Amino acid sequence: MADAFSGKGYVVTGAASGIGLAIARALQKRGARLSLWDQNAQGLAAAATQLNAVHSLTLDVTDVHAVQAGVAEAVDKLGAIHGVIHAAGILHTGLFEDVPLKIHRRILEVNLLGTFAVAHIAVPHLKARRGSLVLFGSAAAFYGSPEYSSYGATKAAILNLAQTLRIEFAASQVHVGVVNPLFVSTPMFNAPHGQSRLSASKSPFAHVYTAEQVAEAVVRGIERRQFMIWVGLRPRLIFWLSRYASLISGAIMARTWRG
């Protein structure tokens, strides 16, 4: 039996490192044809060479014209787009009032408006192939997390957006999935501006996963056309606690953060 990914065209954003690179590598192993996007030109060139990508593009996902051109190029190079995995995003932790407003704004622009741009422009091509649109939420979307104010707000909005698109695109049979990782060991997370008291906590809710574990979940989620794509048990538990044990969720979060 032929692999479901073999010969199919996939766009992966944030592909120069971390989760995006791990996803691109997993897809390449399954025979997918890749269009890799990232703002990091040097890292992207290395990834494209390593994975023998059909197409690569250095761009800022908040630049709508660049995204439009990127999708057009990807269609031209790949022949068709069967899936878009939008893993691009940024993180800057810190207490709300200590993080400069311009950084809050940039997180909102990249994580949220960038997601809107990529999804809006790619969807007509995904409808033509009944393809997959995979967006990145986070366990931070389920309950407000200290030191993740703007990041968590964008991820909550992305989850809401994915829920909307799942219903709107059902008739056209576009698969919409939203990935919900906890902490993931990536250059973004391991940088000084990615650390927090939550991530350093010894609580079982502060487990750190690998990018490869996320990639495995994403590939499996596309195969099964899952909506909520879970990376391990802990994010799922946090989700259920936030929904069905909301009275204690705040106490658990505060205790985890305070150590």
Helices, strands, pairings?
Elements: E1 9-13, H1 18-29, E2 33-38, H2 41-50, E3 55-58, H3 64-78, E4 83-86, H4 101-129, E5 132-136, H5 149-168, E6 175-180, E7 183-185, H6 187-190, E8 208-210, H7 211-224, E9 228-230, H8 233-244, H9 246-258
Parallel strand pairs: 1-2, 1-4, 2-3, 4-5, 5-6, 6-9, 7-8
Jot down its keywords.
single chain, 259 residues, alpha/beta, seven-stranded parallel β-sheet, 9 helices, 50% helix, 15% strand, globular
Structural class assignment? alpha/beta
Biggest sheet: strands, sense, closure? 7 strands, parallel
Distance between the termini: 51 Å
Return residue spans where pLDDT drops below 50 for at least 5 consecutive residues: none
Chain oligomer state: single chain
Q: What spatial order of strands do you see in the largest sheet? A: 3-2-1-4-5-6-9
Helix content: 40-55%
Task: Tell me the total number of β-strands.
Answer: 9
- The average pLDDT value, as a whole number, equals 93
CA-atom Rg in angstroms: 18 Å
Strand-residue fraction?
15-25%
Order of helices and strands: EHEHEHEHEHEEHEHEHH
The dominant shape is globular
The number of helical segments is 9
